[in-house]
UniProtKB/TrEMBL annotation:
It comes from the Bacteria. Its main location: membrane. It is found in: Cell inner membrane; Periplasm. This is Aliphatic sulfonate ABC transporter substrate-binding protein. PROSITE patterns: PROKAR_LIPOPROTEIN (PS51257). GO terms for cellular component: periplasmic space; plasma membrane. The keyword Signal applies. Pfam families: NMT1_2 (PF13379).
Length: 350
């Protein structure tokens, strides 16, 4: 057995022991702790057919997950909205999900702490785009602006902006991204706060302009657009399988950064397969330029994101995020490949 193979096996064993030791009840939950088992027979993974879920697409299509999972079967389901994916996780028809930061927080709350953050996936890649004649934020007053769904990450961001600026009579319409594209071209909506590739599509294919890039609202221009969450019970039962998925996730991101043109093609081919439509090369290039593939969930932003949901009127009080993050599996996988650990910013504390 090679030295690298031996070290990898030792790392996996160490991770399994660490995860088993670290598995506790979720904050406020009295549910019994699940017993750690070996690799899961099957792991059910969810993601959206969006450029902002590129690591998931690449991980699946380039077999980075399959290579790490071994005999464990990978079953993939795609979703169009965060609440739909959260319901699948709560109903135990899904084990691990790539999802927006807003729905991740809502899922943690709704599950009473049993849906947990385990990794980042994508930072950036969300813009407020509008008709060209709208040249300032103040001119959103009296306009109809779309967001992907009620309470999703972009919906919260828009509602917070409207509240902070004291804008009057802004109509916010929730609709699927493809419907928003069509509605904008018909003139039924005046703009939209959207993730990639839809913001680039409205700009390049429908004549919109970028009024506000969400990067400008965050320190260093970094905010979590897509993260990975897991059912705590699955993490407790199958820590080896969760770590296998995260090793595949790391490998997918590394490969994408080293092979950008190929990564774009994999994502575009998959979007065509899943949605029936491929992106034009300019839209694809613009979308990838706007995002950063990263395992860092940028944990320090989540308290502000939780407070933003209050400001936006989505919830009455900010969520207590103690125990929201468990980055044990991620950090073990990162350290095994010589990468630095990711900071949970205190969100792992109960």
């Amino acid at each position: 057995m090679s030295t690298s193979r031996t070290l990898r096996l030792l790392a996996a064993a160490t991770a399994a022991l660490a995860l088993a030791a670290g598995c506790t009840r979720a904050g406020g939950s009295d549910a019994p702790v699940a017993q750690t088992q070996g690799p899961a027979p099957e792991v059910r993974l969810g993601y959206f057919p969006n450029v902002t879920h590129a690591p998931a697409i690449i991980g699946q299509k380039k077999d980075f997950y399959a290579k790490e999972l071994g005999a464990t079967k990978l079953a993939v389901t795609t979703f169009n909205a965060g609440p739909e994916e959260i319901n699948a996780l709560l109903g135990k028809s899904l084990d691990i999900g790539f999802i927006g930061s807003g729905p991740a927080i809502n899922g943690f709350t709704k599950s009473e702490g049993t849906l947990q953050l385990i990794s980042g996936a994508v930072s950036g890649g969300a813009q407020l785009v509008t008709k060209p004649e709208i040249t300032s934020i103040d001119q959103l007053a009296g306009r109809n602006i779309a967001t992907p769904s009620l309470g999703n990450t972009q919906d919260v961001a828009l509602k917070k902006l409207v509240k902070d600026k004291g804008l009057q009579n802004v109509k916010i319409t929730n609709m699927d991204n493809p419907k928003t594209f069509d509605a904008f071209r018909r003139g039924d909506v005046d703009g939209a706060w959207l993730p990639e590739p839809w913001s680039s599509r409205l700009v390049l294919d429908a004549g919109a302009k970028v009024l506000l890039d969400e990067k400008t609202l965050w320190p260093g221009g970094r905010f979590p657009t897509t993260v990975i969450i897991v059912r705590q019970e699955f993490l407790q039962q199958y820590p080896q399988t969760v770590q296998a998925i995260l090793r595949g996730h790391i490998n997918a991101i590394d490969w994408a950064k080293a092979n950008e043109a190929d990564a774009k093609k994999v994502v575009n081919d998959t979007l065509k397969e899943l949605t029936g439509n491929a992106l034009s090369q300019p839209v694809l290039d613009s979308s990838f330029k706007a995002i950063e593939l990263t395992t860092d969930p940028i944990s320090s932003t989540f308290p502000q994101l939780a407070q933003d949901s209050v400001t936006a009127g989505i919830v009455k009080s900010a969520v207590e995020l103690k125990g929201f993050a468990d980055l044990t599996a991620l950090n073990t996988a990162l350290q095994a490949t010589g990468k630095p650990a990711v900071d949970a910013a205190g969100l792992d504390k109960k």
